[in-house]
Design a protein that fits this description.
18 strands; globular; five-stranded antiparallel β-sheet; 357 residues; Chorismate synthase, AroC fold; 27% helix; homotetramer; alpha+beta
Chain lengths: 357, 357, 357, 357
Amino acid sequence: MNSFGQKLRFSTFGESHGTALGCVLDGVPAGLEIDEAFIQNELDRRKPGKSEFETARKEADKVEILSGVFEGKSTGTPIAMVIYNTNQKSKDYSNIKDVFRPGHADFTYFHKYGLRDYRGGGRSSARETAARVAAGAIAKLMLKELDVEVLSGISEVAGIKAEKFNYAGVKDSIIYALDSDVEQAQKDAILEAKKRHDSVGGVSRVVVKNAPIGLGQPLYYKLDGVLADAMMGINAVKAVEIGDGCLSAKTLGSQNNDQIRANGFESNHSGGILGGISNGDDIVLNVYFKPTPSIFQEQHTITTTNEEVDFSLKGRHDPCVAIRGTIVCEAMAALVIADMVLLNMGSKMDGVVKYYK
Amino acid sequence: MNSFGQKLRFSTFGESHGTALGCVLDGVPAGLEIDEAFIQNELDRRKPGKSEFETARKEADKVEILSGVFEGKSTGTPIAMVIYNTNQKSKDYSNIKDVFRPGHADFTYFHKYGLRDYRGGGRSSARETAARVAAGAIAKLMLKELDVEVLSGISEVAGIKAEKFNYAGVKDSIIYALDSDVEQAQKDAILEAKKRHDSVGGVSRVVVKNAPIGLGQPLYYKLDGVLADAMMGINAVKAVEIGDGCLSAKTLGSQNNDQIRANGFESNHSGGILGGISNGDDIVLNVYFKPTPSIFQEQHTITTTNEEVDFSLKGRHDPCVAIRGTIVCEAMAALVIADMVLLNMGSKMDGVVKYYK
Amino acid sequence: MNSFGQKLRFSTFGESHGTALGCVLDGVPAGLEIDEAFIQNELDRRKPGKSEFETARKEADKVEILSGVFEGKSTGTPIAMVIYNTNQKSKDYSNIKDVFRPGHADFTYFHKYGLRDYRGGGRSSARETAARVAAGAIAKLMLKELDVEVLSGISEVAGIKAEKFNYAGVKDSIIYALDSDVEQAQKDAILEAKKRHDSVGGVSRVVVKNAPIGLGQPLYYKLDGVLADAMMGINAVKAVEIGDGCLSAKTLGSQNNDQIRANGFESNHSGGILGGISNGDDIVLNVYFKPTPSIFQEQHTITTTNEEVDFSLKGRHDPCVAIRGTIVCEAMAALVIADMVLLNMGSKMDGVVKYYK
Amino acid sequence: MNSFGQKLRFSTFGESHGTALGCVLDGVPAGLEIDEAFIQNELDRRKPGKSEFETARKEADKVEILSGVFEGKSTGTPIAMVIYNTNQKSKDYSNIKDVFRPGHADFTYFHKYGLRDYRGGGRSSARETAARVAAGAIAKLMLKELDVEVLSGISEVAGIKAEKFNYAGVKDSIIYALDSDVEQAQKDAILEAKKRHDSVGGVSRVVVKNAPIGLGQPLYYKLDGVLADAMMGINAVKAVEIGDGCLSAKTLGSQNNDQIRANGFESNHSGGILGGISNGDDIVLNVYFKPTPSIFQEQHTITTTNEEVDFSLKGRHDPCVAIRGTIVCEAMAALVIADMVLLNMGSKMDGVVKYYK
């Protein structure tokens, strides 16, 4: 239940305040060059503490590969990666020990499991997504061999929307903004909320370029369904759109259909997926993040013994989780696409025969 | 790849113009009373041809149980159900035989599998969802024993939105409308599009009432992730929201958090799910359907040999697939919840000990 | 839990005295020619009532394909096959209704599920293996395209052992004997036991010829492990050997190692599998069947209310289940090998790149 | 593909000469007391270098828990355990770098993956089984709460068979012998082979005591099938028997059936499993290990470039892998039984209702 994927399968482990977190990535084809610097670089993109738009909590997030790589190449065996927690210094948790933080998973974990790791989010902390980014980096290396690219950026913060999507410019923006024209307004909204001890939501837009036609295993491991699962499973995500998404429900068929010419589709309302299978066009997703539930205003809550209290959280938290979240979206999209690439290999009998003969 | 679920697992088979379609539902606990009339009634709700708001194509959709039930009760063995196709009369397919219908899966299936069932949607046809509704009916019977209810209705058609959600009234509306005040306007929009040989999109709203706290297997079989997969995998769905969904991304943390009192949450922005686990509140989903791609206006397309043609579809099609789609959403939600109920049973060691001792 | 396989996955349904039994085979590559006569012929090989060495119960065992095949070829969608039960005539079950038959699954099913299909073996009946043979036939068709062949025969009955293994001769033996020199003695042993209202055990030997090197997904979907699961899961099987099997435990390393020369291995003690992966040599299995538990002698047993009774079974039963069982072994071996063939396709990165570029 | 189990699922990683090996155990119910000393003790039982009957290679095999345990109890989240390799000192591998060791997986891994970890067995080394023993120890702790016990010992070495099975005495035997009367002869056989630079095979006998009736998910996750897979997947295992195993094939139905009385079965030929489901009696397995393929005599082999060579292995190796293997058998049996215990929990509808209401 802590695993994702069918042929490229990753399992993660670890809690925010435990010894370490990490993952085991199973199914990487043998012979792939494993560029450790690239993996670390991806982790650094997600790492907290890089600016005032993120939590001030510092984590080294140094990844160590324990297995599955020999002389710089994948061997076909599971690649285990571990990230030791360095910033979980013993501190006073009495503030939150018995209190459910509103908007967090404390309440549901306590009732599901009957006990509580009161030191922080534990397993439900977004800190776990570091392991996804490490695994996603390897998926990206694999996709690169097929010239497939996964890109993303922030398209919306606190209702301020990008008008254009400049993926190449994302690397120059500290908030991974897609539209430099609205970037400053988005930044202002974040800092304004932060000043008021509040938080804001945001939207990540993800695009997969040059994916082969035919990815997706209908009817219950469809490309869009699995992407939706992968994205909705990221901390704080509350909605996922493929292509035009919600807007499709307001339009007419004559507007929404992507008509076809010999050299391709005339539009891409579908977001590159038809019948759960990639159609060769850009695969496009929008991923909606709620505002960080960790805010520093007083809120109503209860204790583990059902006592009502008014509660103010302390600590350091991201004012907008979508920012670092977009890196996780990219990683998850890369993992899904790489899995689908491998799964698709037995679709046609003549392909199977050609492979073996 | 044609299966869904972990402990309650269903596999479907069949094409729109083949001999039969059906499903095998595995993991139903033994001793459940199987009310066949209820199952048939659920199928009748989804059945086409009931009104001018649906395709005129008639299908009996009579379900036959082949196994897994003895003396009116489930035996713990797989329940196979079959629905024979009765309306796939031999007809002239020359019109569409070599042409990709825009907005359909013809193009992607052809490229993935290298061949084509040219008689209609084949496996990708929404006709397959009859099998989901049959399986979902059994999931509903199982949930009923736990007093859990899954309801749904149409909240939006062609941009015309419900202001209130009256689930009890849905059975009295031929378009399953949640808000009788906007129902007529929604109907008018459908018929207007139909008259123009066009189609409209719509939104289904699904609610699960009285689900136990604790459903959902973090971190990669989360309740919201699996629901998103289940819904996005339904034909024509392009977006899924949990709770406030997209709106969450525009609000502040102080607005979006559901504060807690001794008798429950003060609001339900989260849609009943925190950290991927049910919190005891109503589980709320919005499912966005694109307009039916089958329209009767001329469109650009290509043939299987990449020749450009201008093409007009003939036949009978739903002017708004969301209408019948909402019954499928209900079925899928019921299947997901029932699966999660069974999966959750080993969460606590004392529960395991109590079960066996 | 009623499914087997990863990329080629089959799910079976049905009981001995229900309406029908069948299977859904998912993952067959598109474009495979589906020879229905071959499938029926495989079923006929397993069909009861062909001679005095089998149960006298007659079953037509006519297979009907419901989906997944169009114009004689697989389409890549699930292939559902159904076999209606024709010989489950209403009869008097009062003899066995409340009594657990020794050596049968009645006792365990009753305790696991809390109820009982008292009309016969129900789901646990070997009748279900007809569905495996149908699925296995398609796996064989797929393997044939790769020149891989799965053969089997009876090597031992009631302790009388074959000295030579003539797979080509099996089709000429009514008991599928591998060694015509001991065939008559084996037949005599069966009829002798039958005369005494008793039954005998036997051994099936299975060989897979020309399987590619590299099949098997270490470490927990190994070729030998999965074959062992597949064989042990066949009704009445109590032991499985790979290659020299039990004998290996008595020998020295210097005797048991298969030394290697440029043109292949010098011996095949390993049964074609090293480290859970096929080595290109013949894959060899021995599958041990216990004597049919259905005998017509008086035995001690209890009722569902724990009352002790002395009980004599009536009816028609195979005196040696291994005979028809060998056809099931073949089918299961074919399904495992075909699954492994598909799973192996993403093992090397250069193979993946070659497939897509 | 490096994972095992359905509800209690473990994934292992690591190679014999890499940085570390370990496992992630997912699905452990929350609230189980995790006795780390017990886990280490189980590892110590499998650890090499304890006597002349084992390889002289020393490994500390210290296990470190990275996640999933808080204040001494399981939290319901994945338990990751890691064992760093301490004895993989840089040495000269030129002897085996390009040579396939007969009886080993070198040949098949090389062909499957196209490259080679030439430093030793790599992933295929039995060293990986340390991770299984760590996971199995936790399964044992879980089973202990249900009073279920998994025991094992060596019943046969080099053809010298135990006449009695004294599980309690195993802890006093350095070779885990079940029968002290033949222990010395078994030891002599091992040392005799060792002296001749050869190796011997052996048999482990495993018993599960007090397992609940009803374990096993028919028809394709049967208890006997899964146990067979689990055992056959252990390094060097070539045959698995349930209960009387191979012997069953030689007997009559009247001898082999376990007749039933009000207080239980009159015999246990079935090994505690009927129809793939536990019947409440002892579950009994025999697991046959081939002789260690690593011997120090000259053997024929080839290089990775298909050149014929005569080759003598150097190094330190177990003269009889069955000895330490029996500890792995126990661990795997415990993991299977614990998984089945969790899976069985939704079998009956009244059990489900009782759990939730």
